[in-house]
Amino acid sequence: KPQRTKLAKRQKLSAHDLQVARETAELFKSNIFKLEIDELIKELKLKDSHCLLIEKILHKLHSIIQLIPQSDPLAFDDAVAYFDSSNVSIPFPDPKPNFLNYPLQYTAPDDVSLIGSFGLKTGIQQKNGMSVDVCLTMQKSLIQQKDYLNYRVLYKQAFYLAYLTHHLSILAPQHNLPIKLTYDYHNGNKLCPSLVISSDPEASSSKKDLLFNKTNFSIRILIGLPFGTFESKKLLPDRNCIRIQNSSVTSIEDLPPTPLYNASILSSTTYSYYLKYLYTTKKSTESFKDAAALGKLWLSQRGFSSNVNEGGFGHFEFNMLMAALLQGGGTSSNKILLHGYSCYQLFKGTIRYIATQDICDDGHLSFSSLIGDNKSVYKKSGFNIPTVFDKNTKINLLWKMSKSSYSILKKYAIETMDLLNDVVKDRFNQIFLTNNTNSYLKYDSVVSMPYSKLIELNEDKFGSLEKISFVTLENYLCNKIYKILLEALDDRVYQIDVHLSQNTPSWSTGKRKPSNNLNNSLHLIIGLFFNPSESDKRVTKGPLHTEKELGEKFVSFWGDKAQVRRYKDTTVQWSCLWDVSPTDSVVLTIVKYVLDRHMSNSANDSHLLSNDIIVNSSKFTSLLPSPLVPHSSNSQPLILPQHFILLKNSFDELAKDLLALDLTLKVRSLLPTSPSLRNTSPLLPVPFATGNPDFYNDCVLQFESSSRWPDEINALEDTKTAFLLKVCSELLEKNSDEYIDAYIVKDKSSVPYNSNISVLRILKSDGYGFAIRVITENDEFLYLRAIESASKATGPSQLASVELSYIRFMQKYINAVKHHRSISILATHFPYYSATVRLFKLWLDSQMILNHIPEEVVELIVLQSFVDPAPYGVPGSVMAGFLRVLSFLSKWNWREEPLILDLSREFNGNYEVNPDKESYVDRISDRLDLTTFQTINQSFTKLRESDPQGVKVPYFIGTKEDISGKVWTRGISLVIASRLTSLSRVVLDVLSKNGQNGVEISDQFIKLIFTPALKDYDVVIKLDSAKLNSKKLRRLSGVLPTNIKFKNLVEPLTRYEEAEKSSDPAINYYKDLISRFGEVVVWSVRKYGGLVDANSDRVITGLVVPGNQSRKFRVGIAYPIQPTDGGKDLVRLDVEDVLKNCAVLGGDMIHTIEQKN
Amino acid sequence: MPVDLTPIKGFLPLPIAIPAVANLPPSTHLCYIKPHMSKDPSEQADTTKSLFLINPLPLWTLDNVKKLFRQVNNASHIEKILIREAIDTSRVSSNGSGVNYDLHINLSKLTNEDYGCELEESERLPFGSSVITFLDRDGLELFLSSVKKIKKALEWDVTNSSSETGLQRYTRIPYVIDRKVAEKEVAKTLIDFQQREKKAE
Known about the structure:
- The complex is a heterodimer of chains A (1157) and B (201).
- Chain A has 1157 residues and is α+β, with helices and mostly antiparallel strands.
- Helices cover 41% and strands 14% of the residues of chain A.
- Chain A has 37 helices and 31 strands.
- Chain A is elongated and about 105 Å long.
């Protein structure tokens, strides 16, 4: 009976728990997510003390505004003359008027009200401070019916603003409000100047003065018009409201529409109106405020705001969309969001709407802001511009957005949906906390050009008709470039972002508009999001040759590049053929070509835009060393250079030959484990390049199954050796044309305590080398038996050491094969993975870290940015990949966070433009499921319980293949792991400080990040560069020499150098040092000695391991010791003696040994 | 510089001067010696004429040691030396230590207790130690009594042909096996294997 009660109780409890859990899951995704959101919203809240102070200021300001005297109606000249004695100009928008046939006047505003997020109380803390928007509504009597035409009302507003500015500047200080006044285009809209008021402590003279500089708030004054001033129909987006004389236009009807102008004027009548609308929605929807805060943060983390130059979609637009979706928004007016939703549901619903509904080309959202009207519906007809249309005000709320910014917003929304739907990992960080506004990281490639140059070449094309449609030159240029690139690049890119490097800054109230000099430092930035599977195709295909009209269009767009080509399937098509380059993506070649063709004066070579174009990504790709091959075969594509393919073919041949050998046991398989065979070796495999440290490609050979392998490890290794010798002689005898030489070396390092392992090195006549080791069914069994025996043995425990032998064996023979398999598949799936890993390894090597981290670990770390790229996309260029890997490392708190990678092949399935292109098998391949994820997480927790600081295993990298997470990372030194983190931070830090966001990264900076900081080390051994002959080593590594005059005269390697002459003594010396003194000194060297600058010394550096300063004298201390001055029988590490030993061993190779005191 | 020969835990310090090299000044390396007492009963006979030394230098070859010890006493002849350097080659392939310097692990015996082979004599020495065997016991005793009287550090001279250093040492590809020799050595194992295979068939 008691048992039953217990059971009932438990059931009752769990039912309740279940319900709560289910509710939270529905309302907030999960409990953790809810807690995270709650915490975030709390943190985002504006400080109460700041708000109180600002309210006080606003009251003061309000009373000052009331004191401003009314002006007489002033004729244009009088109005201008009014400010003669003051330091204020009228911020007339372009075109600047010379005469106006109507008066300008200031009368007390109809209404002064708070608008924007502060008014709505949805403001959040932001880095650049909070802007409190205040709207002064002009009296209706000042406006005439026709004022919506030809800038009339804009000129009146401008005068109104200047008059207000003038009087504020006089009155405010008198009333204890020391302020600084500047003009600023509201949201970058050059038709809408506003006044920004900030606190000016320097002008303060009395203690009574009200200062608010510490709040980081500023107040923005906008001049609004009364709601309904104009007949809104006349300002519909398709109407023309700027009447101009133009030779090509005969009647008003033929003038182009002026949507931006119209929307700008209508918007200024709705400032307070929309505030009321949003306020009502907020009142009826409890979580609206929090959802608005989430939306604002989400947008700002992705660089979006209401500013035209920042996408034109910000807090206001997000809130309006959310409000419209609370009224309906579905195809049959069905409600997309419900008033009872949690903030998470509101946020997610809105993001989903952006992600899934096309409100640009195929449809638009139509709603009514009339309270109670509730007419919000998705209509299936698009205007070809992003549209959320308010039927009541006749404003397209997204008027500041471009097609380009819309496509990018949609991309982010889709990616965020993927993250929100992830049931395995917690994605809160990537959704809300990670900032993605650094152009170098955000785009796959950034093309920038000096804005002044662009103006110089294109100003004449900005005629009067363009002026009225596009309002500003930059808008016109951005649009034009976007259109050209969209047509030229087609599906080679997912999105194109075109914007200026800086928003128009605020300017002195003494000037009508900001100075033109600013243009000199401005750049036009083209951010490209590549479609890696299309971006590097060599051919751009056009219409069929028979389609005349389309053909002509194609030719007129592409010019000389257009040619007719016949394809294998016998179609004859207009096409363009592009050269491939080892440093530039084809996309960049096309961008340069079309910009020259359409945005330059192509008649004059010196007036080509491409001369001034800056492409940072090429600077990074050119860091990948060029292979030493004949000039003709050197222009290989970056993505899959032929060198890897040739090596792979050679490997396949070898495997075939081995399989055909007649041995006691047949060869079953040859399994590759070498970086070059999975396209991840820093140096491209070049035939006969025996100086390349990766020249011999490791492989594991498996014979057909047998139970007769010896039952003891030494005999087993001897038998394997015998087999290898047999293989060796058979190969050399039977295929003497294909195999030049083969020899056996002992591998004394892979498995501790087993120094009897043999490796067969084969030199093929095609110039490639392979190193083969044998695995049998008996190996693992014997190691396991050794573990068993060790656990039973008496005496000091040998278990840990024997286990380590087993682990190292597994690494070398089993895990390496598995790892190779996964990586080689993924390397073909992600076109830019290979080049990114290669560059990243080179960077690690340049920092002398590569030798301390197994290459497998490096490959997995780099993979993170590809399989789990949020908040970025899958890297589409080496630069993006490289910097994102650094960014990941700089943020990875590996002591507390495991890195769990999903190596399945379904990535961003929704996001692909053509999901059909992926095969079905690819899409259904197993993703990491929740159970596995949790198991991996548990092993991390367990690991950190025993090793909280990460001394034994700093990095935990879990995959389906390695639940333990430490197969490759065990033994990485804590010092090295910490160093890598700090180096990554330094690079990113300097990068974000290095010039403007998106503009040129200097060569000097790039050189700097690839230079090691030698002063950080305790010991620096400089080797004699003359003795080491680095030029020769470079050549033997298969790397093109530096500073060569005639690239076509480069002599490639054509035969094998004597083995002894091609080894790198510095590396052998380094290996000797780590074997002897690795316990007390952490030695570092560059693995790729051939890449060391021929003019500088090669170095081996050392960090003395702390903690060997004093210990009891005993037998078995495995490093040079000397007695300490203190205590009896105490000895310590003798560093000088270690260095002396190094010097003796290094002999003639040593130049100097420097020790830091 | 006078040498301090205060014994430490029964070991006598043996100072060895290393001349200036590269840009490093001359310095003194300390080895520690005492008569060898093997725990292994089969080696008891030898213990009487052997010297146990810890902290040996690199290039610790018979030639070099002879040259070194001759400086103490010309009459003590060295028969052979055993050396177990503190070297962990497994660091080359991986990170962190693979070898525990406090243990002697015989993987062969652990995989097969019955047929596993024993560790070689030198492999049984503690890491970072050497055993120097003199021709006879008198030689050892003479050496020990002379060493206490030395006034200055011994000189370590490695400029002979048997001590490869620098380029000469490190240009070689490590651990290459002569195919012919190897074939002879392992041929039997393959024959054994073939026989076993045949039997199984």
